[in-house]
Design a protein that fits this description.
single chain, alpha/beta, Rossmann fold, Dimethylsulfoxide Reductase, domain 2, binds iron/sulfur cluster
Length: about 450
Amino acid sequence: MPEESIIKEEDRFHEAKGEPFDSAVCPGCGCLCEDIDLTLENNRVVQAFHACSWGLSKFHLGHRFLREPKHAKLVFPARKEPTGGPLPVSYEEGYEQAAAFLLQANRVVFFGLCQMTFDAQLLAISLIKHFNATVYPSEGMLLTPFFKALKQHPAGIATQEEIRQLATTIVFWGANPLHSCPRLSPRYAVFAAGINAPERHIARKAFYTDPYENDTGFFALRIPITPENEVDRAKELTEIIEEGSFSVPKELDALVKAIESSPFVALFVGRGIAYSATPDALMEALFALRNAINQKKPCVLLPVISDFNAMGFYLALIQSGIDPAESPQVCADLLAYQPKKGDTLICIGSDPFWFFSDAQREAIQSLYIPVVSISSLQNQTTHAADLVLPVALTGVEAEGLAYRMDGVPIFLRQVIPTAQPTDFTVLKAIQERILTEPSHG
Ligand code: SF4
């Protein structure tokens, strides 16, 4: 392509008037796409290229699951009045109140922590250790079983770029990539021609497991499972691969043939494993399947992660000396949380009230359990919280380090300015107040 036409193509990226901001990193999901070209005007993003609709929402300071981007930023710190309405407070007052809630607690319970920078995660973990707190990471239902299995079966992870180049058979197990990481399929896993593709034609074979047909079926073949037979199905597949069996059930036939003829296989596992009766056993069975395929050809298993720095949180736990595979402090499913009088809940970058059962919500209210929400965006938790501390949205209003779903570190840049503090600054200010308390020094 002549050079002038390349320059013309690039110019087209900034049709809106304003300042170009190229190669921004999207904090929308665990793909952390680093190819987002933006145009800025009056400290706002007015145009974005390459982002999916989730990413677009983030750059417009909104929730990622909305069809149309909608501004949802929290504006000021607030505590709940006795009448239930929000009463604006200063950040200083908010830090004091948050420290007081923590210091008076018999038990501190953290929720979320998967959509913040790595530095802030390390700081949050130092508070978890200080209070011997319990934590329900927002991706706990996927990553707690994942790290348990990884400890028993180390290795077998590849980067997304390696998968794009090498994998020719892709299996989504308990994962709908269109809804959890929208650009995973087009950019890496399915609609890209790798070096193993004949003449670089896109020729991947894709499969997904699900009790029902879903939109992954547009490009992948369904392997029917039920929550009851899922573990057995994974084990059955492992046995067939190990033994090179000629007796293959009809519904596994295409998948077995694809695995056998593929030079490189990638298994993507998603949150759907939580619907299994035994998620830990299922993850273990999927790692065993990966090992069986790996005896014959390279096979990798990666979690499909929606919250952009969930992998960072688990790496921060390990770096801080907490083994997520063993520690009773690290829980998986927040529906297992049983509210107790004397609890204080700290929700960071997440919306646990969206997921809580009615019984959990009622118990939190009737037991007068204080809820602190440290969040960029309004959500059900910020509406329910006794104290709300707004923070800058990482990757848009603040910079910081995060880890992609394959464990690759990516530095997110600040795109637009904000007067709001980062989640790190807020946690630091709360920690300082806790450490200066005579009985907690
Ligand atoms: S796939 Fe994820 S990281 Fe990439 S643009 Fe969409 S939301 Fe952002």
